[in-house]
Design a protein that fits this description.
Layout (H helix, E strand, L loop, with lengths): L2 E5 L4 H13 L4 E6 L16 E5 L5 H10 L4 E4 L6 H6 L2 H24 L7 E7 L24 H20 L3 E6 L1 E3 L8 H10 L4 E4 L5 E6 H14 L5 E4 L4 E3 H18 L3 H4 L15 E4 L14 H7 L7 H14 L1 H4 L5
Parallel strand pairs: 1-2, 1-4, 2-3, 4-5, 5-6, 6-10, 7-9, 8-12
Antiparallel strand pairs: 9-11
Helix pairs in contact: 1-7, 2-4, 4-5, 6-8, 8-11
Amino acid sequence: MANLLVTGGAGFIGGNFVHFWRERHPGDTVHVLDCLTYAGNRSTIADLPDAQFHKADIRDTDTAEALLRDHAIDTLVNFAAESHVDRSISGPDAFIDTNINGTHALLKAARKVWLDEGSGKPHRFHHVSTDEVYGSLGPQDPAFSETTQYQPNSPYSASKAASDHLVRAYHHTYGLEVSTSNCSNNYGPYQYPEKLIPLFLINALHGRSLPIYGDGMNVRDWLHVEDHCRGIEAAILRGTPGEVYNIGGGQELPNLEVIEQICAGVDQAFAVDPQLAGRFPDAPPAKGQKTETLKTFVEDRKGHDRRYAIDETKAREELGYSASRTFQQGFAETLAWYLENEGWWRPLMK
């Protein structure tokens, strides 16, 4: 039995991880720390009353120390982060403060409780990062591996790169038992509708434009959030302290292809379920039109990385990880979830 503290556990990936861990490890105790910024949603984990919730900021070292000490936490999983690239371009300060200073506050708390005051019992600080720290790939470049040089190109990815280095330093300098995972683009249930898939799904349901950056050919490796959670679980349970593991979905797709699948999926959903036309009368298929008519090309984002791809060889060979879903399977599940859970995302649109 383990005692976990999941930071950012009311967010998209963190909330999915809390659900995943409670199902897979029902004997463990799970505490969630989240300050409930715009992307943190208490309702994401409202159906898990045994996941003990603490509203607090990861920059509050004293609170983190108290939680680690008072609840005998032995595993800290750090999801808490500002993560939207567009927001980092318009307002980078919050990203520096949360992603760098916040991670450092957690590391200081973990060092004090587990090392300076600790009895030497095993512990794990798992840090969740992104493939964006590696920069951008050309069309023929090999996929990112754990030894790829860091070349972050946005304030968001630069702040995550800095936090990754801090985690590494606390292992090599102080002996803190850490692991880090760098993931590709996540999608799935409970994703805040500022990211591509939920944003375009909800826009399509309301007949709003689907703004496509540049030529739409920026390539991403798509990872269903549950597969990501399985990779993190493997890194925590079987990963070597101090190591980094890249977790990918093995589904490289240009944004334009993803958007075309969104449009086709919405059209198909309306064809199968005529009641959707009553729920979403402004959607093109409710009016006999194709969702693709909403596509609009807009000026490219500043510093927009062209291609990301993950080489997951290390995670597969050392942890036994592999993605379980194709994008087609994962997207079908995701579309169904958003159609069935309007009560979750509707309040976020106000």
